[in-house]
Every structure is written in C-alpha cells, then in structure tokens.
Design goal:
heterodimer; A: 394 residues; alpha/beta; 6-stranded mixed β-sheet; 4-stranded antiparallel β-sheet; 16 helices; globular; B: 257 residues; 12 helices; 8 strands
C-alpha cells in the first residue's frame, strides 16, 4: 500500500500530472518540519502575528447554567483572521516560500481559509488566488471582499453544487494546470498525502497548548475534548495530542443540516460510505454508484461530502466518536453562547457547542470538557438573521 | 491478438472519446458505430461522474447531461454488451476511481470481461496506487491504461515499462479541453517511452484540428480526441450521429501514414 495511510484510508489518488509535485512537497515538508530555522520562524509568526497561544477560557456561567461538567473553550476564534485556519496557512505559505514558489491557491467554503490564506500571502509576499463556490460567495459576501482587500483574486466556481467540494475540484484543476510556481494550500486534513499530515501537524498546536493549559489550570486531563468537523482540521488539531491519553473522550460534531434522515445533510460519518475522492480514501456521502452527493448545511465551512482520512481511521478503531448536529440545534447554540458568555462563535463551532449543551448537564461537576471554538461568528450574523426571518440592512 | 493491439496494428490509430449516456445510452451505441464507420480505431467511453476533476467544461457538461438522463454504471455495461453484438471495435472506459471502488474492483472487472470492455483509463489513479486494481484487472484481461504527463520526466521509464494496452500521453497541463497550442515536447516523451517498451503511445488532451492530428500521429502511434467530439454531441444532441461520422472521417483522414 502507498504512503500516507491511516489504516486503509488516505493515499495519493491524484492525476499523474501532479505526482512529481506532490513528491517534492513531501520531501520539502520532511526536511523543513525539523529545520530549526523554519520551526523558529513559524513559531515567531504564531506568537507575534497570529496571537498564539490562544486562550483556554473557563466558561463559568455556562458551566453553572448547564449544571454539569466544567466547560473550557479553546479560543481559536481569537486568532488573527478569526479562526484556526491561520495555524495551517502560516505553515504552508512559509513552506511554499521555502520551496521557491511565488503563488499560492486555495479553496474555501465559509471563506475563513480563503481569508487566512490571503492574509498569509499578503504578509509573505505571495501571489494568491482563491476558489470559492458561487453559492458560498453569496452566503459569505463579506469574506469575498475581505480576501480582495488582502490582495487575493477570488474565483466564484459555477460548476456542480457551487459549494466547497466544487471549489476543491476547481482548485485541483488549477493546480494541475500550473504547478511549477504554485502551491495548493489545502485548508483541511484532506486530499492526497502529504496534506492530511501537514495540515494536522500545523493544527496540532491547538491540542499541544490545550493540554498544557488544562494541566496548569486543573492539574489533570479533561474527560472530553470536542470540536466541530467538516474536513476535520480543527477537530484533528484539537484531538491530536490527546489521542494517546486513553481516558480522554474525543468527539467530533458534524453538520446534519436538516437531519441525517433527510437528503439535506452533510453528516459524512453518519451517512457516508467508503470511497475514493479528492485524492484520498475515506468516507464520503455518495450514492450506490459512487456519485458524490450534493450535501447541505447552514454552515458553509462544514458543507463538504467527505472527511479527512485520519478521522475515518479514528472512527474505525473507535478512538473518536462522531455525532450529527442539525442546523436548528447549531443556531440555538449560536444564540445561547452569545447571550450566556458574550461570545459570537462561528456557526461551524456552534455545532460543537450544541452537542456540548447536550452532554455537559449529564456529566458530573468534577468532570471537564474542552470544546474548541474554531472561529468567530461575525461572518455568520447576517445568515443567522436570515434564518430567523430578520431583515437586515447594512 | 487482443482488440487493443489490433487498433495499432501496422497503422496509426484515431481514438475517439464519448461520454456514455450523453444524451442517452441508445444514442451512445449509435454514435460508437458512426465513429467506427468514420475511421475511429478505438473508442474511449467516459463513465459519467458527479465530480470529474480532470475534465474541462465541455466534458463536465456532458457528464451532467448523462447523469441527468439517468445513466448508471450498470446501464452502461448493458449497453456495451448489446453493442458487442454489432461491433468488435476496441473499447476502453474512462472512469474515475470511485466508480470502480464503489462497484467493487472484482465485480467491475468481471463485468468488463463479460461485456467486452478491453481496458480502463483512470485519471485519478497514479502509478503509486495502481497495486490495488491492476492484479484484479489483469485476471479479467482488462488493461489499466498508463497515463504519462508533461511533468512525468524521470518517472516516464518506470511508468512505461509496466504499461499494457496503450500509453496515454497527456499533451498538456490542466484539465481536458481543446487548445490552440500544445507546448509540451511530445517527441521527447515518446522517444523515452519507445526506449523501454513496444506498447503503443497515443497523444491526447487538447487535440482539435487536423494539423494537430497529423503532427502527433506522425510522432506517436495514435491520437485521442475527446472534448472536440463531445462538443459535437453537445451541439447536435440525439441527432449527432451523422455529424460525428463526418467529423471523425475528417479528423481520422488527417492521420499520418
């Protein structure tokens, strides 16, 4: 079996045109990840530019209100650009620069990864083009303009369902057309090897910090670590350093849309089956002939028909559990955490908050939950207003 | 001699591509026969996929038309089986790997053998991943066609050595679709291929003029025309048969001796 496997998942299922490029990316990453100068530069960017370490915040009010486990939020929403995506792009764009590339391209769903990539490209002087589904450019118009302000060119992708999966298709096509000066900065722990590993390594800063922070605050490990999951980058980043701590339950909260028993869902772990798509073997929402399903979620960032291969593996071996959360539950959580804690969390992250609201009351008061808030929710305010039938004029 | 070998036997081969089921599977059968009458030596039948990442807008649109008309892998097999009563033209599928994986490699290859499909081209299965399919395919006499790209460079020899059926030389970077100009040094790639194997090499991606057909068939053993043919189907729909015959006759007539 080929490289980059997580159990049977993963691999490198991409056109021959990209193979030499993907091998040079592998080599470059293997070299630089242990290169003292590279590591120091990334660390400096993380601290002085992205604002790391992010807070591990004890949500006292929610803890009391829910009446069960002690709730901590890992505040990736406080990072520069407003989400965990910056952790990965600073690493990848820096790597691209070391590889002698002058241009980066990226897909984006909610626009968070696009904004982060455009930001890193501006800072590190790289040309930047972002591919975004046409439907998402409408749902997240503000983020489109934000990327343009940062100097990126945004392509609205008109093919297929005009969402994240189509943006990935278009971005892969563009990379195939122009590899010599370009690196595809993938936004999640998906795609062909080495992307799932590279993105996981850069995102694992979340759990590296959280583990130290909770040990300092509580003197012990948490009982539950949870995060929302689409492709799975903030979830794997939140889980990674806890995987060997067998006492820690790991929970990924995926987007059920209107519900897992409807066809308006993006809950890959609940309804998906094994397949090979976007460069990897993993679980996908698809029909009996392997046609990829048009998925749905209120959250553009979780609106993806697949899941990263390492998560598929963690599910197979029973190390992590994955639960579906509906639009309605996520919106209620979005509103709840805003009123209770004064935090406007991303609608993506609100999926994790919604499940937290279900499990925290059933846990003992001496138990601890760490829930990652992957991003801030300013971008979602207009969409939530629409969902609630409120007519906003800016 | 197997059917693919026959396509290249002492002559240059014109390979035409159609998306199966575009606009319907009944028409696909007729179109294949018309293309054969026009001089196609081998037909590449695309199994429509929801997300054809290696294809440009023309073939993407054909995939959508075919899927919207209800085309499935099983129906394509039935069509090919019925087609085989009327023609012995070599047939290969162009399919994305998930189509085979979901059907089951074993079941898919078995159906290929039963229906008379001679090979498969899988744009998202590189050399490194072929181990999970090739041993099964070869048990059923199905060639898994090797693709070689402008960026393959030092990989060319390794790839070509293990190639069976024919070798698909990808002329250009990017996705499928007609191009005015092809800048890759195809001759160099073909020379390297010929230094290690007798397996014939055909050039595809972007070919849409008689001049290109002549040029690349004089360098390689054949040419593959896809998007330009699919565009004819897109324009003429169910009535495309006669036009396909005319188009393929013109293009195949430009083959080098």
């Amino acid at each position: 079996m080929s490289k980059g496997r997580f159990g049977k998942h993963g691999g490198q299922y991409i056109p021959e045109t990209l193979m030499n490029e993907i091998h040079s990316l592998e080599k470059a990453y293997e070299h630089y990840k242990d290169d003292a100068e590279f590591v120091a530069e990334l660390d400096k960017l993380n601290r002085q530019y992205a604002g790391r370490p992010s807070l591990l915040y004890y949500a006292e009010k929610m803890t009391k209100a829910l009446g069960g486990a002690k709730i901590y939020f890992k505040r990736e929403d406080l990072n520069h650009t407003g989400s965990h995506k910056i952790n990965n792009v600073l690493g990848q764009v820096l790597l691209a620069k070391r590889m002698g590339k002058t241009r980066v391209i990226a897909e984006t769903g909610a626009g968070q990864h696009g904004v982060a990539t455009a930001t890193a490209a501006a800072l590190l002087d790289m040309e930047c083009e972002i591919f975004m589904g046409k439907e998402d450019t409408v749902r997240q118009a503000l983020n489109v303009y934000r990327m343009e302000l940062l100097g990126a060119k945004v392509h609205a992708v008109e093919s297929g369902t005009k969402t994240l999966k189509d943006a990935v298709n278009a971005c892969m096509g563009e990379w195939t057309a122009r590899v010599s000066d370009t690196l595809y900065v993938l936004g999640s722990v998906m795609g062909p090897h080495p992307f799932p590993t590279i993105v996981r390594d850069f995102q694992s800063v979340i759990s590296r910090e959280a583990r130290e922070q909770i040990l300092e605050a509580e003197g012990r490990l948490p009982d539950v670590v949870m995060a929302c999951i689409g492709g799975g980058s903030n979830a794997i980043g939140s889980f990674y350093e806890f995987i060997n701590d067998k006492s820690v339950r790991l929970i990924g909260c995926e987007a059920a849309g209107h519900g897992v028993d409807t066809d308006k869902t993006a809950a890959t772990m609940a309804v998906g089956t094994e397949g090979i798509f976007h460069g990897m073997k993993s679980y996908f929402c698809q029909n009996e002939y392997g046609q990829i399903a048009p998925v749905y979620s209120i959250s553009a960032g979780l609106d993806y028909p697949g899941v990263g291969p390492e998560h598929a593996y963690l599910k197979d071996i029973g190390r992590a559990e994955y639960v579906p959360v509906t639009d309605e539950e996520a919106v209620r959580a979005f509103e709840y955490i805003a009123r209770e804690e004064g935090i406007i969390a991303a609608i993506e992250s609100s999926h994790a908050v919604a499940h937290l609201m279900k499990i925290a009351p059933k846990m003992r008061k001496d138990q601890i939950i760490i829930c990652t808030l992957s991003g801030r929710g300013d971008k979602d305010v207009a969409a939530i207003a629409r969902y609630r039938g409120v007519d906003l004029h800016e | 001699m197997n059917r693919i070998k026959k396509a290249f036997d002492n002559k240059k081969a014109f390979i035409g591509f159609l998306t199966a089921g575009d606009p319907t599977l009944e028409r696909t059968e007729e179109f294949v026969l018309e293309m054969e009458r026009g001089g196609a030596a081998l037909i590449e039948l695309g199994i429509p996929f929801s997300d054809p990442i290696a294809d440009g807008p023309v073939i993407q649109a054909a995939n959508i038309r075919s899927l919207a008309a209800g085309c499935t892998t099983d129906k394509i097999f039935d069509t090919v089986a019925s087609m085989r009563e009327r023609t012995q033209i070599p047939l290969v599928f162009l399919a994305y790997l998930n189509t085979l994986y979901k059907y089951g490699y074993e079941a898919f290859c078995k159906r290929c053998q039963e229906c008379g499909v001679d090979g498969v081209i899988i744009p998202d299965m590189p050399f490194e991943e072929k181990g999970e399919l090739v041993p099964i395919a070869s048990r059923y006499g199905v060639d898994v066609i090797t693709m070689i790209a402008p960026t393959s460079k030092e990989r060319i020899k390794t790839l070509a050595k293990e190639a069976t059926g024919f070798i698909y030389v990808v002329s250009s970077m990017g996705v499928t679709g007609a191009r005015d100009e092809i800048t890759t040094d195809i001759e160099e790639i073909v020379n390297i291929i010929r230094s290690v194997t007798d397996t014939p090499a055909a050039v595809g991606f972007g070919i849409n003029t008689k001049e290109q057909v002549h040029k690349y068939s004089s360098i390689a053993d054949g040419v593959i025309v896809g998007s330009a043919i699919v565009r004819v189907v897109g324009q003429h729909g169910a009535q495309a048969g006669e036009e396909l015959y005319r188009y393929v006759s013109g293009m195949a007539g430009a083959l080098a001796e």
